[in-house]
Amino acid sequence: MKARIIMKVKISELLYKIILSLLMFDAAFYNTTLPIVFKDKFHMICLILMLIFSIFCILSKKYTIKYLLLNILILMFGLISYLISGNSDIFTSLLLVMLAWNINLDEILKIIFNVRFIVFILVVSLSLIGILDVGTIATTSADKGVLLGYGHANTFAGSAGILVFLMFAIKRNNIKHIHYYIALIADILIFYFSRSRTSLMLISLLIVIVYTVKNSTLINNWVLKISKYILPLILISIFTFIFMRTKGIAPHFIDIIDKIMNGRILLACMNLMYYPITLLGQRIDISLIASSNTYFALDNGYIYILIHYGVIGLLVICILQQYAITRCINESETILCVLSTLILCWMMYEGMMVSATANFTLLFSVVTIKKYINIKTQKGINL
Known about the structure:
Layout: H1 2-30, H2 36-60, E1 62-64, H3 65-85, H4 89-99, H5 105-128, E2 136-138, E3 144-146, H6 153-170, H7 177-194, H8 197-215, H9 217-247, H10 251-260, H11 264-274, H12 286-290, H13 301-330, H14 334-346, H15 365-376, E4 380-382
Antiparallel strand pairs: 1-4, 2-3
Helix pairs in contact: 1-2, 1-5, 3-4, 3-13, 5-6, 6-7, 6-8, 7-8, 8-9, 8-14, 9-11, 9-13, 9-14, 13-14, 13-15
């Protein structure tokens, strides 16, 4: 009986790792300048395979009744949201989170890092030998960021920056000076090629905070205390700034804030004018906003979720994210707290961080959910 349980656990873990790898390859390739026909076909193949493996993964697991019901409820929302919005990000993110139950966190992080690193090196190499477009895009009136095979310089910076964050997550209990040097060199190179000030600022902050936390018990404890307040503070700030700009309150102050955020408050307001807030999300017709605006990119991840997946979608993601941070605090995982809060800040600047395939810190929430369920009942059911 015990051997059978162990075998089922190993099978479910293997299936999850296959699902995770498929979605990571899909997400990593989709942001490149590969032909859209290839990316769409590859995306569809990955989704079909993911669904097949997910069914087998669910059947191979042992669940408590409450955890099973929670899974069904959340995944039903994810599926409904996908059907309404036509965007699979939230569905695949929720699936990754739910199926990660009882899977070792470090194994998950290593898979994400390995897949993203392989794709990153492949894409950059293909651009350097001329198969993919090296390209440039103006980031300011004076600077041009290099694409290096990606759709945008910020996407290149984000894809490279995630690798630095993952490195610190994997090595969090054994960080050495060489890891700081690697991160610093990567930070300089990413900025040199992309001219992305967001990645420069966040990776620099990551290096400084991690080093300080590792060398100061006082700062370590302080980070653990304040981490749970970061997400509420970000949400309150974003919606307050949007309200103030919409109503014309303190325009000079908002202009200063918006300049610091590279116009993302104005862009959020603009998108909300064309796509009103809904409960479960909506399909986005880009032509509506593109017909009268030359630039309309929605880079704020929180407003991106709100528009695409509705109020419930934003609530679900924020609850999972807060669970993730709570779990890190309860287990004194200070480095994971730092990574989570900095990615929450990154979401204010980049829409690509909304998915669990990029925002890997969402996966930290599964342990918290598991503990919550198991306190109530020890009985499980096999599917």
